[in-house]
Amino acid sequence: MSTSTTLEAPNSGTWDGGNEPMKASYGKLMMWFFLLSDAFTFGAFLIVYGLARHAHMPYTGEPEAFTFSTEWWPIPEKVFNAFPGFHGVDLPLAFVALMTMILILSSVTMVLAVEAGHRMDKNDVQKWLLWTILFGATFLGCQAWEWAHFITGTDEGMLLADGTRVFGANLTVNQYGPPLFADLFFFITGFHGTHVFTGWILLLIAFISTVNGVYQKRGHYEMVEKIGLYWHFVDLVWVFVFTFFYLI
Amino acid sequence: MSSTDISINRDVHHAHEEHDHHHDQNFFEKYVFSLDHKVIAKQFLFMGIFWAFVGGFLSVLFRLQLGWPEATFSFLEPILGGWVENGKLNPEFYLALVTMHGTIMVFFVLTAGLSGTFSNFLIPLQVGARDMASGFMNMLSFWIFFISSVIMFFSLFLETGPAAGGWTVYPPLSALPEAIQGSGDGMTMWLISMALFIVSQLLGGVNYISTVINLRTKGMSMTKLPLTIWAFLLTAILGLLAFPVLFSAALLLIFDRSFGTSFFLSDIYIAGQALTNTGGSAILFQHLFWFLGHPEVYIVIMPAMGLVSEVIATNSRKPIFGYRAMIGSLFGISVLSFVVWAHHMFVTGMNPFLGSVFMFLTLIIAVPSAVKVFNWLATLWRGNIRFTAAMMFAIGFVSLFISGGLTGIILGNSALDIQLHDTYFVVAHFHLVMGAAAFFGMFCGVYHWFPKMFGRMMDEKLGFVHFWFTFISVYLVFMPMHYIGIAGFPRRYYNWTGFEAFNIFTDMNTFISIAAILGFTAQFIFLFNFIYSIFRGRRATENPWHSNTLEWTTPVLPGHGNWPGEIPTVYRWPYDYSKPGSAEDYIPQTVPFSQTQSSNLPNEKDFE
């Protein structure tokens, strides 16, 4: 028996070990699993949003006659209707639509950067990463303006029962409706913004490394790909946030 | 014959070993900020043992209060200081004790201590990998856990005490710092510590999953994995999906506490003054919490199930009964664990119809659990049993899991729960089924894998003494608790002598307390055995239990990279014990079928 050779090959199917069954390196797998778990975090927040909204009265009157009141949940179009440089003009959801476009555009440039990485084209990776960084920064800038406007409030504000007026919103007072509307707006867009900002920092690091030729020397641009996964995920989350907060 | 072949190969490898160890690591690289999964596993184990003694000590303190409510505890003043007033335990401190006992045991011992130790130690060794997928993230996972531990430990010494709103930290009690002392700084530190803990769990979890998927050695298909690995894999997936929801809940709670939001708060009056918070829902927190909280009990128990399956098969010298059914039932438990959370909330005013849906789903969990119990018993049946200390704890685990599981069927019933909710019946149930049982799984793992961890054997006789004291005292503590629970005795009460109906339970409570102190004291036998054996234990051989899995093909003390030479290749499943026709009663996974022609089954002839 001991003379028989031990060189016989074990099974070598997809899941038989000794390979990468999902055709992905462990780093990419880890990113996917992290994103899966992060999706549950955001999922929990959006469920909180849904339940809070469900627990409040909707506005039932004519849309033209809508006024801000703590009695009912506001109509998003009436809250988010400002645009920088167009003071007093009613442009429902125009600014947030622009923000969304910019973020989706950044996803497109991210795809191009990853694709350039597959071709090992350092210049193209640099170019498209830079565009992504630019669009990402623009989105964050837009969000800062959006927050600033939300905090400052409108000219009219909200008339309270005791005759005083409330302008703008913070975590305890809210001119647009019930306090929870502002709480959830700040919390969820803030949490999303933190994610975008983190991704933006990662992109900046990837850009510097690309310029320094780190990935070229390493022989692959997988790091760009992993950050790309994260960036797309953050964009996808924004689509949900946009849908829940602004459209529905 | 096959075993002699292996030892010849190993001698060759020893020659290589000398070359592999030229890279000298300094003390910090080797023992503190180590990237080696085996060292990180030991770090988790030491932390887990430390926390287990802290948590156990806290439980002894509140058992003293419950057992002897009229006694004076002046002798505790040197340890507890201001928390003992005129010989009486401060009632708010009592609440802090039960809160911290729960938090420490559930999260720091049975989640981090159990998964952290054995997932880290066994996954690379049993799948045949040099290390975890990312050693750096693995190290980070431990050190974030360490920081989280330091914060939680420090909160014990605050003047206002640690968190005291129960381990479930329900708002509004936990959300309003002015509610009780424990909702002040102690609660803030609890939340920060838990947020870090979750980060540590996620870092660990993605690592475990990626390692199992990508780093299995040649031939190690998913159905050749030891059941331990399946349990760790599914545990990590549960953690990955459940913990982020607790993270969300904790973040929202932090905002409610510190920044004036109203997510969980509405219509609250303190001392006649209305708070400004409106619109939130305290029940919402319970939903978020238990969406983690319920999978969490399976995060605690499933690694123990995996360890027990492996130890029972090895020490019964029989293949595990129903290997695929074992995997299937783990799957079933994992999926079901996410759709039963509201059975913790039957009495929150939930719609009774919804209650019956959750009751139905809850009771279905009895099916995969029963499959597992049946398979363990069938594995033991007519086995050639070796009663090692690890085996005793494994059998003890099965016993406790049955005893505790039966009351689960009662508690899962939404109508019966109205009477039993928040009584000592619940306390008895979950302490048996997930508390003591998971501890037994952990002990079973430590006794069994100690030789691979430290290269020495633990003392078997002390192990037996430890087992019997622990086993008996666990039953003596928790069996009587069922009775006072059925009588309606509520948990978390500092003092019950004011209630005429409960005075008759004084003797029983004293009895429980004595048994609890006995059980806690018995753990020092383990501690002594553990520390003594690290330095003075009998030297272990490479495969002291004659086990089949890959970790026993490594040298007595595996170095960095685990195998000195090539990583072994796997040809067979890990449960070829007492195979008819084989000379030895075990055939390691690394032995090809061509070497075991006498014992091959007809369908295995093709692999020769």
Automatic annotation (TrEMBL), chain A:
| Residues annotated as domain Heme-copper oxidase subunit III family profile | 1-248
Its chief place of residence is membrane
User: Which Pfam families does the UniProt entry name for this protein?
Assistant: COX3
PANTHER family linked: CYTOCHROME BO(3) UBIQUINOL OXIDASE SUBUNIT 3, CYTOCHROME C OXIDASE SUBUNIT III
Q: Could you tell me the keywords of this UniProt record?
A: Cell membrane, Membrane, Transmembrane, Transmembrane helix
Q: Which domain of life is it from?
A: Bacteria
Protein name (database record) = Cytochrome c oxidase subunit 3
Specify the species.
Pontibacter anaerobius
UniProtKB/TrEMBL annotation, chain B:
Write out the transmembrane intervals.
Answer: 44-66, 93-123, 135-158, 190-215, 227-255, 297-313, 325-347, 353-377, 389-412, 424-450, 462-490, 510-532
PANTHER family, per the entry: CYTOCHROME C OXIDASE SUBUNIT 1 (PTHR10422:SF18)
Tell me where in this chain the Cytochrome oxidase subunit I profile domain is found.
Answer: 27-571
Which Pfam family, just one, is annotated for this protein? COX1
According to its record, how does it sit in the membrane?
A: Multi-pass membrane protein
Q: Mind telling me what this protein is named?
A: Cbb3-type cytochrome c oxidase subunit I
Give residue spans, biased composition: Polar residues: 591-602
Renumbered residue ranges of the record's region Disordered:
589-608
Q: What is its main location?
A: membrane
Q: Where in the cell is it found?
A: Membrane
Q: Which family does it belong to?
A: Belongs to the heme-copper respiratory oxidase family.
Tell me yes or no: is Endoplasmic reticulum among this UniProt entry's keywords. Answer: no
Keywords (alphabetical) are: Electron transport, Heme, Iron, Membrane, Metal-binding, Respiratory chain, Transmembrane, Transmembrane helix, Transport
* InterPro entries listed in its UniProt record: Cyt_c_oxase-like_su1_dom, Cyt_c_oxase-like_su1_sf, Cyt_C_Oxase_1, Cyt_c_Oxase_su1_BS
